[in-house]
Amino acid sequence: MASAFVVGDKFRNKVTHLLGKSESALPRALGEELEEVLEKPEPTILPFSTARKIKKYLQDNGHPFYLHELLEDSSLHLPEIVKPPRNPELVARLEKIKAKLANEEYKRITRNVNAREINCHGVLSDFGQQVRSVKAVVVTIFNFLVTIVAAFACSYMGSQYLFTETTARVISAVIAASVVGLAELYVLVRTMEGDLGEP
């Protein structure tokens, strides 16, 4: 937080002029403070307390200029914030905690990986499992097609006792095969939902 001004040349000139005038009758304590401020090397720092004293003196003695005119080319002095050194024990503990968290995260990510299975027989067992699942899908599709064809053939052959025209027999066979196919699809979907729902 600012507690002083960095004064410029305008302040130096006016204060030097005030100090040089014998009739200005600056209070002795204020004069000494100002001389001390001006003797310091650049940048010249003027504390707020001294600035308040100058303001009071200017107001009381009716000088033709004000404090803000003295400080026109000045700026606030913002001291640098000095960061305290970090405690080495705390830094060591933080590094240990970071390493522990990173290790736990690595174990969590790799908990399903078994290097022995992958290297020895993991590839072949995966291949066998994939072949079994493809075989099950092929058998299911084949069963579905055979069921529809059998339903069509059965309906076509059985409809000869009801219809004499071929068109009516084909239409009735298509309707029967469609109904059987939809029923087969319904059963297939319910079975797949049951398989997928199992843990």
TrEMBL record:
GO cellular component terms, semicolon-separated: endoplasmic reticulum membrane
Keyword terms: Endoplasmic reticulum, Membrane, Transmembrane, Transmembrane helix
Principal place of residence: endoplasmic reticulum
UniProt record, GO biological process: vacuolar proton-transporting V-type ATPase complex assembly
Pfam families: Vma12
Membrane topology, from the record: Multi-pass membrane protein
Superkingdom of the source species: Eukaryota
Coiled-coil blocks: none
TM ranges: 136-158, 170-189
Annotated compartments: Endoplasmic reticulum membrane
PANTHER family, per the entry: TRANSMEMBRANE PROTEIN 199 (PTHR31394:SF1)
Protein name listed in UniProt: Transmembrane protein 199
Organism of this sequence: Haplochromis burtoni (Burton's mouthbrooder)
